[in-house]
Amino acid sequence: MTETGTTQRGAAAATTLPETAAETSADRPWPLRMLSEKLKIHIERAPAVWVEGQIIQLNRRGNVCYVTLRDTDAEISLSLTIFNSTMNRLNTPLETGSRVVALVKPDFWMKTGRLSMQTRDVRPVGLGDLLARIEMLRRALTAEGLFDAGRKRPLPVLPHRIGLITGRESDAMKDVLRNAALRWPAVEFEIREVAVQGVNAVGQMRKALAELDADERVDVIVMARGGGSLEDLLPFSTEELIRAVSAATTPVVSAVGHEADRPLLDDVADVRASTPTDAAKRVVPDVAEEMHRIHQCRASLRRCLVQFVAREEDRLTAMRSRPVLSNPEGMITVRHEELERLRSRSLGAITTAVHRGEDRLQHLRAQVRALSPQKTLDRGYAVVQLDDRSVLREAAGAPVGTHLNVRVADGKLGAQVTDNDENSRNETSNEH
Prior knowledge:
Blueprint: H1 3-16, H2 32-45, E1 49-61, E2 64-70, E3 77-83, H3 84-87, E4 99-109, E5 114-124, H4 127-144, E6 161-166, H5 171-183, E7 188-193, H6 201-214, E8 220-225, H7 239-247, E9 252-256, H8 264-268, E10 271-272, H9 276-283, H10 287-320, H11 323-326, H12 328-371, H13 373-378, E11 383-385, E12 403-408, E13 411-416, H14 421-431
Parallel strand pairs: 3-5, 6-7, 6-8, 8-9, 9-10
Antiparallel strand pairs: 1-2, 1-4, 2-3, 4-5, 11-12, 12-13
């Protein structure tokens, strides 16, 4: 078979291959080389990226250094390939356990189907870098308000059960348990022993925090750990743990490291204790001090009661010595004398008013009688009336023969007019 024929058949086969992986099937598969080519093309499109992790394995082979890098907060690792040219640029040689950032670019080796991470640059992460990152995160969370004093919850006066998150068989756990029991022997604990450093620390502490926060019996949660290097305490400054503590509904006490250590957990916790021992003192009261306060309160209460009783006895004695209580009938006697005096004055005033009224009545009676018609009749005058009881005031009104009724002082009498001066005066005037 000629070379030209083979090329033509290969071109014909290529045109019949599926264009995408979704179009492949058992009857129309891709050649392995085609998959490798497409994977290489796809992987080469990925840009270089900076990653951070901790070196857990480092092997030098000729001009190449093979490094296994693990995530700082999860059980995830990745193999890196670093050439000596890149390693030689470092001022400080890399060691197992070092924390680094690396600029990596994925590379696919088609011949063996192996994926490798070509490292173009690598830089150790020093303490200064870690502190700068922590401070940057501190400022960002402060701006969000996670560290505001208004979000802090007060600790219970006497917690019935304390949640404790600490390392396994750690000195911090022993300090908290011992000091809390010495201060309040009846205290109860709900303990969660977790990793407090390393890649599993954050996940285990968040899980323990969620369990204790959901337990209604737990009144307060203490997160305790002894001292250590900055790298050892980094889990207590991770954003995931800080937000989990901020979202908890149960008060949280931070007792991490020593007085000089300041992880971000101290800022978000409701109470910061300088040491685990200090946390035990803050969470539970001292039974001796409380008993002393009770004795002081009882003594103060007794003293107040004695003073109150003595004061009331003095007031009662003073009240009993008053005349109104020592001689109660005296008040009645005084009021009786005053009543008699007022009664006498009232009677005299009434009698005087009556006498004056009688005198005035006699005077008015005399005036009325002096002006009455009876007095006139008593002086010899008479009242003459006609039969219609009208008073006769002129002689012309009673011609001769008119019957008259005459009222005198002591009775009445009838009369008839026999002569009338008015008629005589009329006749005399006619004669003239």
